[in-house]
Design brief:
The protein is of the alpha+beta class. It is about 20% helix and about 25% strand. The radius of gyration is 23 Å and the shape is elongated.
């Protein structure tokens, strides 16, 4: 990797700012001063220092966010607030993107990374990765609904959903449930309940695969994944 690209990608400044730092002789590679930004280095093998500070190279970043309502799962939009707008410059330099999406008014677990291979594994229909949601539903959710979800809900447009798990937490005029699906069609859970003549009032994703939302994260907050959480992602 070019030395100027490495330093810029690790947050030491823009390419222009890094160029000035190099010209001042403030960068050393294996103890030797380097002034040419075009020089290539092996960041994981060579000792790169800037003003005496060792440059720790990271290729990927993995963030868990509790997505708030009113924010879209995208990296840029001319009118809407995106999840990446909530990140600091320290994370943005890695150019992370959301893995999958949550509807604008849906809260909860959202993984952001720049690891395309991991994102593909988690989103591939062949992998059948479980996604679990907590929902408040207007209407009495019944055991008949549980069986319908288990069989595979037929949406109003005729699409047949894969079997889903519906657990009733509280039954009443406004019911509370957990729903686990293995696909992610547009507004899927809302449309599944519409098909059984009920309306989702509130929706929050709490788990994706073996990764669970850290409930200590308030809406809009995020943190890096722990080593244990990374191992759960496989």
């Amino acid at each position: 990797m070019r030395i100027d690209k490495l330093l810029a990608s690790m947050g030491y400044g823009s390419r222009k700012e890094v160029k000035r730092i190099l010209k001042k002789g403030q960068v050393q590679v294996d103890g030797k001063t380097v002034k040419d930004g075009k020089i290539h280095v092996e960041p994981e093998q060579q000792d790169v220092r800037i003003m005496g500070e060792k440059v720790i190279y990271r290729k990927h970043i993995y963030l868990m966010m509790n997505k708030p309502a009113g924010v879209i799962s995208a990296t840029e939009d001319p009118t809407e607030t995106c999840v990446t707008d909530l990140l600091s410059e320290a994370e943005l330099i890695f150019q992370p993107f959301p893995v999958g999406r949550l509807d604008k008014d849906t809260e909860g677990l959202l993984l952001l990374t720049n690891d395309g291979q991991l994102a593909h594994r988690l989103l591939s229909p062949k992998k059948n990765v479980d996604k679990t949601y907590y929902a408040r539903v207007d209407g009495v959710v019944t055991d008949q609904d549980v069986q319908a979800f288990k069989k595979g809900i037929i949406l109003n447009d005729g699409y047949v959903c894969k079997p889903a798990e519906l657990k009733i937490i509280r039954q009443g005029n406004q019911s509370e449930v957990y729903v686990t699906i293995t696909e992610g069609k547009y507004h899927q859970i809302k449309r599944m309940f519409q098909a059984v003549e009920k309306t989702v009032m509130y929706l929050k994703r709490i788990q994706m695969g073996k990764l669970e939302l850290d409930e200590r994260l308030r809406p809009g907050e995020y943190r890096e994944l722990t080593d244990d959480e990374m191992s759960r992602l496989g």
